[in-house]
Write a structure and sequence with these properties.
Bound molecules: zinc ion
Oligomer: single chain
Shape: globular
Order of helices and strands: HEEEEHHEHH
Number of domains: 1
Structural class: alpha+beta
Radius of gyration: 14 Å
Strand order of the largest sheet: 4-3-2-1-5
Number of strands: 5
Length: about 120
């Protein structure tokens, strides 16, 4: 199987397992939206800007550095989820968001929540 097909399969699986989330954040009177995709073991989550960027290592190393395809499977998952309207919507306030962002960039939800 090609790398592209493997990514596609993982993307479809992520959508079916409801691991694609659209996060809405209310900041004062305005609202921002972005997507996250949970890893298959749900220990990590990655921020996805559709068609542009994903915070996972595969995007950084395979897609950007080695130029193996244009998207990681998280980006594909978001595209499929948007097309099929099969993402989970989450609303979050600003404080929670900032906590989540820190976890996301460190990539280790589990460890951090235990340390609190
Ligand atoms: Zn990714």
């Amino acid at each position: 199987m090609s790398a592209k097909n493997m990514r596609e399969n993982r993307a479809i699986k992520a959508v079916l397992e409801k691991r694609v989330k659209c996060v809405k954040v209310k900041i004062g009177t305005s609202e921002i939206k972005f997507f996250i995709v949970e890893s298959s073991n749900k220990e990590k989550m990655y921020v996805v800007l559709p068609g542009l960027y994903c915070s996972c290592p595969d995007f950084l190393f395979s897609v950007r550095f080695r130029e193996q395809g244009e998207k990681c499977y998280h980006m594909m998952a978001v595209e499929i989820a948007v097309k099929e309207k099969r993402y989970v919507e989450i609303e979050i306030d600003k404080e929670n968001l900032l906590d989540r962002i820190i976890y996301t960039f460190l990539g280790r939800l589990e460890t951090l929540s235990k340390a609190r």
